[in-house]
Amino acid sequence: MDQSNIERFYDYYDRIADRLYREYKKPYLEGMNEAFNLLLDDEMKDEYKEEDINDFISWKQEIVDVEFSREDIRRSVQIGMLKGYKHTYSTNALITPDTMGMIIAYFIQKLYKEQPQTIFDPLVGSGNLVYTIANVLKQDIMVYGVDNDFLKCQLSRNLGDLMDIENAMFFQDTFTYYHQHMDVIVTDMMLHNDGTYMPYQVLNHHIDALRENGYLFAIIENDFFEQEGANIFRQEIQKKGQIFGLISLDKRLFSNRPKSILILRKKIQETNEQNDFLLIEMPPFTDQDGMENTLQQVDQWIAARKDVKA
């Protein structure tokens, strides 16, 4: 990761998005997407003044020969997403913090014998969580995502293309999407408590997409198991797999609603499946000794189980 490259890539699309915002009243996030379209496809969705197009092309030429790493691009785009959400008075909570992606990537590396070939986020948003994980894993991986927001779906697709990560992003309701044999599923649960608790529905629907013995990682609020229907959710999940673990995250990562990472595992055929539960409280990332001790506990727990590796 190169800080100067992060800034250089940001300057490219920020100048275009800012011009489109000021001169054409185009929302900042749409302007970002237009800048990405120009970089990827040499075209833009709308027609603009010739002098503006000439500026955009000249700004593009300033960076086309720069070698950006995947993390340069992802972190640069993340800065723009934060600015775009500020423009629309949206909460920054719509972007999953990098630390959560890094923690999930660590557990993927520990729980899978081989590098997963496919990873799926059923609530992908702009893609920061799933691409953070893909970058930590480093090797090539096919990324799938679903979102019912068309612009976010476009942004997540373009972000993957900019990083040269093979991806398939689908603009549709997550409950209408069906797939089979995904190696791993990751998602950050949105705030939703209107009627039936949506996170239960999302997890119950998409665990079917996992291959046998695969894992699903969901970022949940700490009152997840206190919602109406929690017992029914447990019963339904146990028909398909098991609640494998719960990682409590440092409360200082969140402004007001602490979260954890729930790990579900797709049902396996062996009848000697162990039922002990991984329960970990993650210390602050700044506590190096505490973090090292915690990860040693995880390693020991995994080593003691013969049925863990997927």
Automatic annotation (TrEMBL):
GO MF annotations, alphabetized: DNA binding; N-methyltransferase activity
Residues forming the DNA methylase adenine-specific domain are 96-297
Q: Which InterPro entries match?
A: DNA_methylase_A-5, DNA_Protect_Modify, SAM-dependent_MTases_sf, YtxK-like_N
Q: Where is the YtxK-like N-terminal helical domain?
A: 7-84
Q: By what name is this protein known? A: DNA methylase adenine-specific domain-containing protein
Q: Which organism is it from?
A: Candidatus Xianfuyuplasma coldseepsis
